[in-house]
Amino acid sequence: MRRAVGLLGCAIGLTLQPAAAAARDTLGIFEGWGAFRDAVPRRCYAIAEPAARSRGAAWRAFAAIATWPDRSVRGQLHIRLSRRQAPHQPIMLGVGDRRFALLAGGADAWAPDRRTDAAIVAAMRSARSMSVEGKGLDGTPFVDAYRLRGAATAIDAAALGCAGAR
Which domain holds residue 18? Predict the structure, then answer.
């Protein structure tokens, strides 16, 4: 239950407007992953906090896989890093034995394209863990590690939560 409360708190923290936070629907909590639906903007997403992260985290990091029906986007990766990324430094996502280079902007990272999003989600379905590695502004390396147990179910619940939405 403590993990579920942490996920819900993290999800509510993602929305800046209190009215939108009140409109959030919980679609389910699956191990360390939660699935949520927002009315405005219309989106559904699976989200988790790192199981382990480097010391010195500046804020609550998360990994999310989102569906945005109004934008025809499904399975989009978004990572909130535990600290701001040093400019011109790579961010690497390891999922099982696969590695993916991500695009970074300050404290956030994304897959470079839809094809990579799909490959990452496919890898997440069969892996036990994933990690995000980078260098902070001070040059110190960091790693945010995620358990993937429950991720596939949460991703599916989020996709179903926005199915047929227009």
Answer: 2-161
**What tokens does 11 get?**
């999800």
- State the Cα–Cα distance between residues 50 and 9, nearest whole angstrom: 14
First to last CA, the chain: 33
Does a structural domain hold residue 166?
A: no
Residue 110: give its domain's CATH number.
2.60.40.1880
82 occurs within a structural domain: yes
Q: Where are the alpha helices (DSSP H) in 34-105?
A: none
55/143 Cα distance (integer angstroms): 9
pTM score: 0.82
By the 10 Å C-beta count (0-12 exposed, 13-18 middle, 19+ buried), 17 is classed as exposed
**Inter-residue contact 22 to 140 (CB < 8 Å):** no
For residue 14, the model assigns a pLDDT of 43
Q: What is the per-residue pLDDT across 121-163, written as a single tens digit (0 to 9) for each?
A: 999 999 999 999 999 888 889 999 999 999 999 999 999 999 8
State the pLDDT confidence band at 70, using cuts at 50, 70 and 90: confident
Half-sphere exposure of 155 (CA within 13 A, CB side): 22
CB atoms near residue 19 (< 10 Å): 9
How many domains does one find in the chain?
1
Q: Taking Cα atoms as reference points, which of 37, 38, 41, 14 lies closest to residue 27?
A: 37
